[in-house]
Amino acid sequence: MPEAAFEAVTGFDALRPSSARIYDYFLSGKDNYSADRSLAERLRRAAPGIRVLARANRDFLARAVRMLSAEAGIDQFLDIGCGLPGRENVHEIAHREAPGCRVAYVDSDPMVVAHAQALMASGGETTAFQADLRAPETILHDRRLRAVVDLERPVAVLMTAVLHHLSDDEDPHGAVARIRDALPPGSHVVLSHAEVTPALRRAAALHACADAPFVPRTPDRVARFFDGMEPLAPGLVRAPRWRPDTCGARLTGAGRVALLAGIARIPA
């Protein structure tokens, strides 16, 4: 689709910073625009550790997918707020551990979905579609999800670095609870979330001009996302400290990375 037509159909605006494209920039990606890079640099000056936070999130996601597919026997993944494709995407990691894993990518950003459909959706094992975490039922009941993921069997729902882009008024805890209640026993919820620090408060104020808010939360409020579930060891911790491997060990000052991360299981 020509760029002008894409903009007309989706409402895409390259002049307004996008949280997905800012994240892509912090990961040294190429799918970002001048407005995204400008705001990203302002965020970096306000919160110098924010680029490390993005990388720590990506490393945690990889470790989580490897563990769930290799150790927990999970062969279905629903990645909500998947972001732009990069290196080591969920389906690539999962397929190395357990060939035949099925992955559904979901994002509210039309540009993200267009890239995901072009680069990641293939055959009958992977799909990508546009939907919004604020309305979880539209994700769970979507025919494209049901064509790939069987919600009668255990599934891992990934919500990494996405819940802090929902304001309190948008009820992120309620959205996660509705997803939890739709999952069968043995399913897992994977999440990461920015923690409140003075630097990230400054970043949040700057982020107000982007397409989504940035809302760091305290550890107790992040822990509430796991209500009704059984957290896996070591619980909710700073992302580099969640079962670190050589990727996590590369990060200096791991305990200062203000990104909380964890995995919880839906009990029988």
From TrEMBL:
Q: Which InterPro entries match?
A: SAM-dependent_MTases_sf, SAM_dep_MeTrfase_SAV2177_type
Please report the name of this protein according to its UniProt entry: SAM-dependent methyltransferase
Gene Ontology MF: a single term: methyltransferase activity
Instruction: Tell me the classification of the organism that encodes this protein.
Output: Bacteria, Bacillati, Actinomycetota, Actinomycetes, Streptosporangiales
Pfam families, per the entry: Methyltransf_19
Q: Which domain of life is it from?
A: Bacteria
| Key words, A-Z | Methyltransferase, Transferase
Name any Gene Ontology BP term: methylation
Q: Which organism is it from?
A: Actinomadura vinacea
